[in-house]
Amino acid sequence: MKITIFASIIAALTPFATAKKYVWPSLYDEIEEILSLQGGYLSRRFADGRTGGIDGSIWFELNRVENGGLAFNNTFNFFNFLYSTRASAADLLAMSVIASHSSCGGTTKISFCYGRVEAEEAGPAGVPETHTPLETMLARFATAGYSQEDMITMVACGHTLGGVHSVNNPQISIGDTNVYNDTVTHFDGSPNQYDNTVAVEYVRGTTTNPLVVHTNSTITSDKRIIRSDKNKTISALARKPSVFETKCANIFSRMIDTVARSVKLSPPIEAIDIKPKITKLYLDEEGSLVFSGRVRVRTTQGVKKGRDPSDLSVHLTFANRKGKGSTVIKTEHAGNSTGLYGETFAWYEFSTTIKLSSGISKFNIHLTVPSKKETTKYTNGGHGYLVDDSVLYQEDVSCVSRTTMNGTRRFTIRVAVQKEQSSSPLTLEIVRFEKRQGVIVRKMGIETVNFEPIGESSGIWVFFEATVQLATSAWSTTFDIVSEGMRKHPGKSGYPEANIEFLRTQTCPRVSS
Ligand SMILES: *[C@@H]1O[C@H](CO)[C@@H](O)[C@H](O)[C@H]1NC(C)=O
Ligand SMILES: *[C@@H]1O[C@H](CO)[C@@H](O)[C@H](O)[C@H]1NC(C)=O
Ligand SMILES: *[C@@H]1O[C@H](CO)[C@@H](O)[C@H](O)[C@H]1NC(C)=O
Ligand SMILES: *[C@@H]1O[C@H](CO)[C@@H](O)[C@H](O)[C@H]1NC(C)=O
Ligand SMILES: *[C@@H]1O[C@H](CO)[C@@H](O)[C@H](O)[C@H]1NC(C)=O
Ligand SMILES: *[C@@H]1O[C@H](CO)[C@@H](O)[C@H](O)[C@H]1NC(C)=O
Predict the structure, then answer these.
(1) Whose Cα sits closest to atom 14 in ligand 4?
(2) pTM for the whole thing?
(3) Which N-terminal stretch is annotated as signal sequence (predicted)?
(4) Atom of ligand 4 nearest to the CA of 335
(5) pLDDT digits over 355-406, tens only?
(6) Pocket lined around ligand 5, Cβ cut-off 6 Å
(7) Which ligand is nearest to the CA of 221?
(8) Relative to the CA of 174, which ligand 1 atom is closest?
């Protein structure tokens, strides 16, 4: 029998109440990775985003005149691919501010905190437009908690990048309204660089910013704002690049961390030092356990002395199902990646098979500096990195069919469960995305489906399957395999309950004819 429950809304990721020591695995592994892996091997390709107001309510405001333009939809379309139960649209939008700051040369680190609660409706109307009078602008900023100086700083810092598109604002940026022949009028002479050129050019009187120099005075809102304190704030920003840098980092930090009183943001995310990822743990046709994965090592300069990927080797040691023994698994250096503000990482991969009679319960990670013959052991805060082989995701035979039927495709998931646990409740929790009228960000719900035995077994394992129909239009989604029989995480609240979590659907291989 199949029970289906459709939960309406997914609860926001509950941030840690206090900064705790990281224990693997964690519910924030995903968001940490999107933030940390900006370029290179296994990059999450977050790239740079755009600034906006930060409960994600801007998603609901796309049809309002002040947000007009494809740029927003384009940005959000891009985020959609990273948007999940572990990364809210509002958090991704906040992260885009930091990513664009860092990737355009900003050097003062802006911390990223997660835990923004997704807006369920549009925010109040009345985001200032170019023709909005100064008094109204000041009042709007004051309502949001920003002084006149803050307002001028925000305008200058926001307009150090980019420009105005003729496609969206032909009355401001003179040019074609055809998307394929867009004219961009830049705010300053270095539109791709986070620097104080925008302020310097204004003070010198050489600015090209259309919101300052436009002949139609209704449009020159930047000029009205900047002049409103007799050029005091802009002059300070123009005088010293370091002042501009510090003030901008500060105002962006305040902007993205402005949330409703009921929302509690996490402490700033720091890149995790040593982080494993199990990519495969399943029973193969020969009856062995396939165990593959990778270890990410933080190699950022100045963080850990002597962490040079060209003089580093990594191995694992694992204990059998009963917690005994210490078998070595070697790894290969597979690549490097880069994060924000100079973070770097090196990846070490492993793939092995484990005898059924042995099994696996946990492992430790060892880092060796060959030139110094020094080895450091990492034990996940003394818990070991726990692996539970009592329930296995048989990923080689779990996939979404390529055949479409009535607009849906069948997704079959197979698991192998140790006999002694086979009577414990076992469910699939799959995330469904729902499209909403006029809103680019889809709503998420969880559907719960029971696994059923298929009447096959292998050694101490019995096989179960669950099937669901997925909309053909949904390109991919995530799911958890939830077993009450699995061991609990050593950490307390805020950690995953079972450890086969946040898996991603994959399409079945093409059948060769
Ligand atoms: C592109 O826009 C410019 C400026 O508006 C115009 O002169 C030109 O003819 C347009 N080109 C095409 C191919 O439409
Ligand atoms: C502010 O600076 C601009 C550009 O240099 C200048 O034209 C304007 O007169 C200044 N305004 C005041 C009040 O100093
Ligand atoms: C100046 O800009 C405003 C706002 O876009 C517009 O309504 C007005 O017609 C413009 N005036 C002139 C003279 O073009
Ligand atoms: C990773 O970086 C190190 C130096 O930091 C370099 O020696 C090595 O070739 C890089 N490896 C890969 C796979 O890119
Ligand atoms: C497809 O949908 C139609 C109408 O809803 C239904 O009658 C039919 O049984 C469905 N076919 C399958 C294979 O589910
Ligand atoms: C942005 O996307 C929404 C939802 O798909 C759509 O209703 C809206 O027309 C789009 N806006 C633009 C400017 O394309």
Answers:
(1) 335
(2) 0.86
(3) 1-19
(4) 13
(5) 999 999 999 999 999 999 999 999 998 889 989 898 999 999 999 999 999 9
(6) 405-406
(7) 3
(8) 5
